[in-house]
Amino acid sequence: MVLMPSFRSLLERLTDDRLRAATLVGLASIPITLVLALDAVPRDGVVIGGLSPATPLLAAGLFVGYHYHDRSIASRRAGVRTGLVGSGGVLAESVADLVTTLGSESPAMTAVTVVLFLVELVLGVAFVALLTMASAIVGAWVASNVARVRDPTAPRAERERPVDDSRWWLPVVVYVLVAPLVLLFVFWIVSDGGGGSVIIGALLLFCLVVTAIAAVVSLVKDTETLVDASAAWQPLSVVYVAGPVGVYALVYLVASLRQSIHPPGDAMYGFVVALWGSSLVYLINRHRYVGTP
């Protein structure tokens, strides 16, 4: 009985007509992603964190954020929907890559490869949703500033709650504390360990992506709280979100020029590290001007 309302609520969220445009944009990005993936360098084995080329999804996120900035539904939620739907391109390319890899593996290695593939696939879809959500936030910020230029007399949002009532900075703190530990484990322990440590590392990376999603959402919500409360320090969330997105694009470009085995995987790590840096700077500034954390 308790599960029925939750299932009904989930079904309503999945079939929300307000997200129809976000769904269509995600679907439209899939063939473009697949075309770009045709030129990708094949992987030798399994690469934790590998993704298909994300350029179409970055563009889709920007468009969706711009489109939904003044709608009744949050642009970041629309960005997540676009990312989840658009990750179908990631799924198709990854499955094709897996089939090619399995042809030359022993039965034991085939089983290990399939398990790692499933973990990597979940990690990839989650990261695509994070990346698209971040780009949607940037798109919404651009749209809001364009609207403000067109109508400079537009009223500011009314105050909703005091600054002290906000606890949105807590997930940001969690991410700042967790990210270095996970990356340390992945780069220094997994590289020297066996198959078991690789699986643990992949699971930890998935948890890291989840905490990164929570951190991005919390950054946006916390900055909104500070603005609504007319706090002395009113940061722009786009400053702390756009930076990691830019780092992702830059690392991807550099890795491609250097003929890395899988540039999107390198770019994912660049995004995670850049988000850690921007989150740390945000917390330092928040403590300096607001007093918490």
UniProtKB/TrEMBL annotation:
Keywords: Membrane, Transmembrane, Transmembrane helix. The keyword Transmembrane applies. This is Uncharacterized protein. The keyword Transmembrane applies. It comes from the Archaea. The chain crosses the membrane at residues 21-41, 47-66, 116-147, 168-190, 196-220, 232-255, 267-284. It comes from Natrinema hispanicum.
